[in-house]
Amino acid sequence: MTTVEEPKTTTFDDNDQKPVGFGRMLRKEDPRLLRGRGRFTDDVQLPGMLHLAILRSPFAHARVVSVDTSAAEASPGVKAVVTGETLKGLGLAWMPTLSNDVQAVLATDKVRFQGQEVAFVVAEDRYAARDALELIDVEYEVLDPVIDVRQALAPDAPLIRDDLEGKTNNHCFDWETGDADETEAVFARADVVVKQDIVYPRVHPAPMETCGAVADFDAVEGRLRLWSTTQAPHAHRTLYAIVAGLPEHKIQVIAPDIGGGFGNKVPIYPGYVCAIVGSIVTGKPVKWMEDRSENLISTGFARDYIMRGEIAATRDGKILAIRTNVLADHGAFNGTAAPVKYPAGFFGVFTGSYDIEAAYCKMTAVYTNKAPGGVAYACSFRITEAVYLVERIVDCLAAELQMDPAELRLKNFIQPDQFPYTTKTGWVYDSGNYEPTMRQAMEIAGYAELRREQEEKRARGELMGIGISFFTEAVGAGPRKNMDILGLGMADGCELRVHPTGKAVVRLSVKTQGQGHETTFAQIVAEEIGIPPADIEVVHGDTDQTPFGLGTYGSRSTPVSGAAAALVARKVRDKAQLIASAMLEVTVADLEWVKGSFQVKGDPAKAVTIQQIAMRAHGAGDLPDGVEGGLEAQICYNPSNLTYPHGAYICVVDIDPGTAQVKVRRFIAVDDCGTRINPMIIEGQVHGGLTDGVGMALMEMISFDEDGNCLGASLMDYLIPTSLEVPDWETGYTVTPSPHHPIGAKGVGESATVGSPPAIVNAVVDALQPYGVRHADMPLTPSRVWDAMRGRATPPI
Amino acid sequence: MQVPAPFEYERATSVDQAIGLLERLGSSARLVAGGHSLLPMMKLRLANFDYLIDINPLHAELGYIRPVGDEVRIGALTRHRELLESDELAAAFPIFRDAERVIADPVVRNRGTLGGSLCQADPSEDLSAVCTTLDARCVIRGPGGAERVVTMEEFHVGPYETAVGDDEMLTEIRLPLRPGGGSAYEKVERRAGDWAVVSAGAAVWLAADGTITDARVGLAAVGPNTTGIPEVSAALRGREPAEDLYEQAGAIAARSCDPATDQRGSADYKRHLADELTRRTLRTAVARARS
């Protein structure tokens, strides 16, 4: 491997010049990715490979009367044209979603959202395939669409899901958590009750790489190889086996390098299935890569919760209860990826970081004529919505009580001695120490000084706002007894093999989409077994090469597979100890582990390194009785609980009173994700998530016109932030290890995406206090802020 | 990757050869310069042309910023980056540098051209507002070397529609140089590189006694066309620059425009911005004219 010279800067002062373990080190995958030598799905080229393009519905709701493919079939270079009717014959017109609903692969009866898959063409190149789409003649009978989510359950609303037996309305599911009566009783006796309607609009993950697949079905062997953009290769393989009836051992799913996922690449999309069918039909490898518009209009969106938040407190600021009512827009099919028992994901943590007496949530989810999805975009299974709700409503309470929002939070935190803390909605927070995290953020921000500055500016008519959010997340699903995806338990396998020369390979079920697994997991194993990270190869993303596991989403890689990697390394180390005892001719109890070697207690000169042990494990000569040759192990880790990272975020904004433009001047993020494996990677994840937050708070929204046309079908219409919209991030950290995780680590991948939007919105609302603004919904575009300043803030939907 | 429908491509060797091709191919052909609007439209199949004539090879001929007499003449193929970096242009018309700093991003500015921007005739286009503010003249060349010169008002026929015929080509923009001038541009956008929610340009010319001899305001994204507002000019001429005068101009701008509510903002907000930005740019333009 080519070596990369590490920059000699102070930011690398805890760089691992040491041979093993945790600390800053440059990412092992970066030489490949930065030099353009990554291998993404669209880089896969196979001999004879054909290209697939999908015809999509221009209408949000319409009956498919007929599909005439004859002209397309006659188009130059076209090898196959497949419609819903064709798939029906194969029993593949519908597929299960990850939420026990079904979704059309290709429409047979109706189209139910604009952009829905109607037919596909396989041709010699993508131009020929795309050109032929123009020649498919589909006759539609246009139906009234359901676009306004608030009208979805109206008695006269058009029925979307007439494919479901006995379905008479657009109701998707109801869900509740907490105790309604108890909560009502607390509300009834509270000094102060604040209510606020809060919308978390529909946003899209918009990864740089769109979704795609290359399917290669070998009819002779009955074997399917599928390269695809998937965050969960093993779960996908099992589902393909179930859906397509192919034997699982004949399916190999390969997720090569992925250019960003953010949850967008968790679901199985019709396009993947089309690619498989295309390869079966033509007998050739078939590539499908969606274009940008297809990605934005048809793949998993996120959020789309209309929430009413209520908070009850005493006059002196003790929060007593939180209650919420949620209307959830799930689009045309319930394509949410959530554990089966959690249809609303982990929204139940809406009680936040506060010690309260009661809580209750009632949610109604409905179908609309919009793209399916729901859980995507770095949301930790709906915790993004939950944190936004609680942190916004707590700020509303602070305004009502005329209390400083930092003080109000500090007064209500769950205290360190209360952990493990069971919330009123049944979540067991593993560990936390909130006040030091909050204090550190306030110190970095210079909170008191900022408030003074704000006062001066207000006197001059300038608009400056300071926003705070404090979040607790629940990440790292399972345990398997509670959590499964379509019956697949949320636990992760891991294998570690140490080669004779002391180099190692660790095989993981999770899959990086750019967050640095090849480095982080090498560091975890290195820390446990004393082999330098550079000598540890991380293999992932190929079902033939790796043990079973549920994949990367919901910040679960480090909490689950990270634990698996540590434990499998310990298992190997235990075996190494047996071998070492034979090599040093002492008992196991006489040995102590000094990172990288076993030495005889009290006699450091008598020691063997892990590399020497590895050679002995494979070499000539006897091993101790009962010890097999080789130095490897395999485990499947079932987490006993989720991990609960937390953080304190403070945002400072300036608003131009003339144009209502919001400028994020400063952003302070203090995260506590327990043990920190590679601080550089953590900071990178935090920086990315904070940028996401600026996007959602200020500009991102997938909206629809009244006919159901998606108005965010390109990156000119759907804005994502650039470096010019974000400040220099100011980060800090505290460390409260998870008590049940083998190395004390918690997930961090989504913390910043979850925690930042409320801080930004709270800052904007704070800046607008002179205008009497109590709340304004995202996205806070200049126009919407100007409306708020005029006392007519309106929900975006 | 979005892929366009099939088309033929030819690189131009001279202005007249390109016009000859246009004459022969008619409305099925389109010139491509920077291509930053045309190619995305073709990839989305919103625009389908059988022939593209690439005029980038003509940059030596049509890429220039040149003072001639009492005008500054700019070749239609002059790139955004050249407009941004020209100190000569910034000295004469600081509005250009103001605008170029907020147009798209460096990648677009490296390749996009003045002529392409004007011919796209997007109602939100920044350089159309700049040229309107500066009372530019557009030189349009047709078959046989025939040239005609039109005002910006004449040039813009409608949204995405100009006076340039199927067999014609915009070759040059002429900006009149007048003494005592100052100009400025401001844009409100949702994000760097986005199209304007509203943008405004202002130019003023002051007499030796400090009164306004002439003033122009050009707005973008507030109606089907980028147009000047004669009423603003009339209100400002002969007056002493002052805050209440800018307010008056802003109010005229707000009521003279015709914005639509869309994802970039409500019509009310855009009208407010027309007012606010008119005042701001006039203030800056006067300050620059005085210095």
What does this structure look like?
The complex is a heterodimer of chains A (797) and B (291). Chain A has 797 residues and is α+β, with helices and mostly antiparallel strands. Chain A has 18 helices and 33 strands. Chain A folds into three domains: 42-143 and 210-258 and 265-298, Aldehyde oxidase/xanthine dehydrogenase, a/b hammerhead (Aldehyde Oxidoreductase, domain 3); 383-476 and 643-789, Aldehyde Oxidoreductase, domain 4 (2-Layer Sandwich), CATH 3.30.365; 491-637, Aldehyde oxidase/xanthine dehydrogenase, molybdopterin binding domain (Aldehyde Oxidoreductase, domain 4), CATH 3.30.365.10. In chain A, the strands form nine sheets. Chain A has a seven-stranded mixed beta sheet with strand order 3-7-1-14-11-12-13, with helices on both faces. In chain A, strands 9, 10, 15, 16, 17 and 18 form a six-stranded mixed beta sheet that branches. The longest helix of chain A is centred in the C-terminal third of the chain and has 28 residues, at 557-584. Chain A is globular and about 85 Å long. The model of chain A is unreliable at 1-18 (pLDDT under 50). Chain B is α+β, with helices and mostly antiparallel strands and 291 residues long. In chain B, the strands form four sheets. In chain B, strands 4-5-10-6-7 form a five-stranded antiparallel beta sheet. A three-stranded parallel beta sheet of chain B has the order 1-3-2, with helices on one face. A three-stranded antiparallel beta sheet of chain B has the order 11-12-13. Chain B is globular, with a radius of gyration of 19 Å. The N and C termini of chain B lie far apart (51 Å). Chain A binds chain B through residues 126-127, 130-131, 134, 289, 291-293, 658-661, 698-699, 703, 711, 714, 716-717, 719, 721-722, 724-725, 781-783, 786-787, and chain B through 1-3, 5-6, 40, 44-45, 188, 190-195, 197, 263-266, 269-270, 272-273, 276-277, 280.
